[in-house]
Amino acid sequence: MEAFTHIYNQIVNLGETQVYINSYNDDSDNIVAIHYYEGNIETEIAFNKEVIARHIGLQIYVRDTNFELGYARIEAIRALFAVYKYQSIVIRQKGDILTLGNDEKNRSEFTINFNLELINGNTVT
């Protein structure tokens, strides 16, 4: 979907070099993963069966070998998408940054959730 590619590109533009969509590997240390999931609002459809807006959940996951650097990385992403609108995409921060602790390799883990609204389907015009 063009909208997901746009979000990926915005995170890469922040300087992130290891960005994954809906999956990631255990080998890399300093990563960002974008996860899309069913949103909490149903898809809006007009009388003629045309999709007006799709509401999708968006979760950003950051893993870093350094707590402070990892937190700064997810904070930059939070600030970018706290309230974000680009053509047919609207993103609103759903909650604050969650610190998940450390994984088995002692890497700090963070996550933040957003509501994503795709107006007129799923493309960016």
Mean of all residue-level pLDDT scores: 85
What value does the Rg take, in angstroms? 15 Å
What is the class in the CATH system? Alpha Beta
What's the CATH architecture? 2-Layer Sandwich
**Intertermini distance:** 12 Å
What oligomeric assembly is this protein in? single chain
Unreliable stretches, pLDDT < 50, 5 or more residues?
none
Task: Tell me the overall shape.
Answer: elongated
What does the model show?
By secondary structure, the protein is α+β, with helices and mostly antiparallel strands. It has a single domain (2-119), classed as STM4215-like (2-Layer Sandwich). It is 22% helix and 42% strand. Strands 1, 2, 3, 4, 5, 6, 7 and 8 form an eight-stranded mixed beta sheet that branches.
What descriptors fit this protein?
42% strand; alpha+beta; STM4215-like
Briefly characterize the structure.
This protein is of the alpha+beta class.
